[in-house]
Amino acid sequence: MGNAPKDLKFNGNELFVKLTDGETVRVIKTGQGDPLLLMHTIRTQIEFFSEMIPFYAKKYTVYAVDLPGHGQSSINKNINYDEPYLRKSIIDLINKLGLENITLVGESIGATLSLTIAATIPNKIKQVIAVNTYDYETRYADGIRRGNFIANFMMWNYSIPFNGAIFAALENRFFLSLVMNGGVTNIKKIPTWLMKLFDQTGHRPGYGYLGRNILKNWRSWAKASTNYQQIGSPVTLVYGENDWSTKEERSRTFNKVANAKFETIANSGHFLSVDNPNALKQVVNKHLIA
């Protein structure tokens, strides 16, 4: 995983879809079959799934999404990037693309969105694979702060209005790597090329606002699970053994989803698609409905 894939468009098409509110969302479409909508973690983008997209594309038409404000999607400092806004935007995207019978796959906040979207438009969703669902916060950046000492220190400073603006402006690849390494079992699991890409994206105009705003809305991610009882499609909850969530928090989520199956992947952390993609492929392959 040290080198970037030869084709970061994954032999597909790169789309920029304009939503009803005027914002633009980047999508990479690849593969053949029923649609699979793929949503990434906080502070990452489509390329986070470089190991997983070719796997999903063997059986599905994959629509990998840069979540609103993330990656190369547009950023608007007048938008409050809470869970309801991101959910509304992705549902709008689904409608713009005309998708039906959808498999939703998400990781971290992408997993939470996959569940709330399934609850909101159940007639369009075939199944959900939710990886390390991020729905348990009790304070600003609670999950990220559990990763390591550096992550806790950085996120505590981000949470203070004046300090947060300074720390956001000073963010660089070194500090970003330290924070993200709190989500893997081995620091070598996150490729250098990917961290460079995240760093480049982080210097886009407005990205400091996006990062702080989405974290500021931690209560909306914690509240998201109140929607789970509306899900009608089959759900597989997948957790890394060393995910930031506790066993009690995982059980709480499981108990709120009527049609859920539960899988734990050993020796794996929060960023499962880079930490242990081969094990994740095995678990997903077992549960995907043809």
List the helices and strands and how they pair.
Blueprint: E1 13-18, E2 24-31, E3 35-39, H1 53-56, E4 61-65, H2 83-97, E5 102-107, H3 109-120, E6 125-131, H4 142-145, H5 149-158, H6 161-170, H7 173-180, H8 192-202, H9 207-216, H10 218-223, E7 235-240, H11 247-256, E8 260-265, H12 272-275, H13 277-287
Parallel strand pairs: 3-4, 3-5, 5-6, 6-7, 7-8
Antiparallel strand pairs: 1-2, 2-4
Low-confidence stretches at least 5 residues in length (pLDDT < 50)? Answer: none
What is the terminal separation in angstroms? 29 Å
Q: Residue share in helices? A: 25-40%
Radius of gyration: 17 Å
Number of helices: 13
Q: Outline the biggest β-sheet.
A: 8 strands, mixed
**Strand arrangement, largest sheet?**
1-2-4-3-5-6-7-8
Quantity of strands, as a count: 8
Write down the secondary-structure element order.
EEEHEHEHEHHHHHHHEHEHH
- Content-based structural category: alpha/beta
Instruction: Sum up the overall morphology in one term.
Output: globular
Beta strand %: 15-25%
Mean pLDDT: 91
Task: Please supply descriptive tags for the structure shown above.
290 residues; alpha/beta; eight-stranded mixed sheet; 40% helix
Structure description:
A hairpin with a 5-residue loop joins strand 1 and strand 2. The chain has an eight-stranded mixed sheet, sandwiched between helices. The mean pLDDT is 91. The two termini are 29 Å apart. The chain has helices at residues 53-56, 83-97, 109-120, 142-145, 149-158, 161-170, 173-180, 192-202, 207-216, 218-223, 247-256, 272-275, 277-287; strands at 13-18, 24-31, 35-39, 61-65, 102-107, 125-131, 235-240, 260-265. The longest helix has 15 residues, at 83-97. The chain has 13 helices and eight strands. Helix 2 crosses helix 3 (109-120), helix 5 (149-158) crosses helix 7 and helix 6 (161-170) crosses helix 9. The protein is an alpha/beta fold.
